[in-house]
Amino acid sequence: MADSPDILKYFYEEPVLMEPVTPDADPDARRRAERPERGPGASGPSMPIDQLLQTDDYYRGYLAGTRTDGAPDPDTDRVGLTALPDPEVYVTPLLEALGQSWWAVVGADDNVQEIHRDTAARRFADPDGTAALITASDAVPPERAAAVVGRGRREALAPLRAVLDAGAVVFFPERAHDGFDWSFFGSQPMRDRLVAAFRANPAPGLRRFVLPYQKARSESKFYFETWQLKEPSLPDYIEEV
Q1: Long-range residue pairs from 140-148, CB within 8 A, at least 24 positions apart, any chain
Q2: 8 Å CB contact between 185 and 163
Q3: How far is it, in rounded angstroms, from Cα 162 to Cα 148?
């Protein structure tokens, strides 16, 4: 193993609440400082109590990476999952653990195209021009697939939940410093399946870590490899696989 091996990080949130507490029609409703408080005669968007109390469970993952090329100087690191020299270290586990029989890509222009598994693999490695990847056991209608992208993540929550409820897993490329990371959502737990796939696919020269998203909300904790790997031991919530 190199003196400073490359790093792969898998953050998970299981379950994750994907029900907004304000209506989709009012995406800025949380900015209370910019509007008067609602009173007895106030009007405007409101959410029925049954929707407020709806807490269907969904599951989220996030894959990130750091390429060091064996150099001990962090200033030379390339930060981004797709910056890793061998995309198979994350593509193969994703396909094995979460892939289903049907795949589609949503392009940057919201165009939906059914694709083969090997094309999905190439998109994971190079997501430029990709808005989302979707895998399911049965085909998702194009208009429903395109809706998971929407004009913004908040506005697309309802369509995303509908697709997840049908058993699909949806992947989104996320801009990183050098390339892309991947976030993904499902209606069933994914952590154990993905960790098992990592263990079944050894990756020499790469250190792989699994940790709960809630423990990595700050920038310093997200990039824990820049300082905590020098400590005698990692925090209990970080698991190396």
Answers
A1: 140/102, 140/104, 140/166, 140/168, 142/104, 142/112, 145/104, 145/106, 145/112, 146/106, 146/110, 146/111, 146/112, 148/106
A2: no
A3: 9
Kindly report whether the peptide bond that precedes residue 85 is cis, defined as omega within 30 degrees of 0: no
In whole angstroms, what is the distance from residue 160 CA to residue 171 CA? Answer: 11
Residue 143 pLDDT more than 80? yes
Greatest Cα pair distance, the chain, in angstroms, is 67
Kindly list the distances between the CA atom of residue 230 and the CA atoms of 4, 33, 190, 226, in Å, as whole numbers in the listed order. 11, 43, 30, 8
Reported pTM: 0.82
Nearest alpha-carbon partner for 191 in 62, 86, 52 = 62
Scan for tokens 């410093």, then name that residue. 177
Q: pLDDT band for 163, please (50, 70, 90 cuts).
A: very high
HSE, side-chain direction, 13 A CA sphere, residue 36: 7
Tokens of 11: 């953050």
Identify the pLDDT of residue 232.
62
* Bridge partners for 63 per DSSP: 10, 182
Residue 117's closest CA among 130, 132, 105? Answer: 105
Backbone phi, psi, residue 12, to 5°: -130, 150
Q: Are 115 and 105 in contact (CB under 8 A)?
A: yes
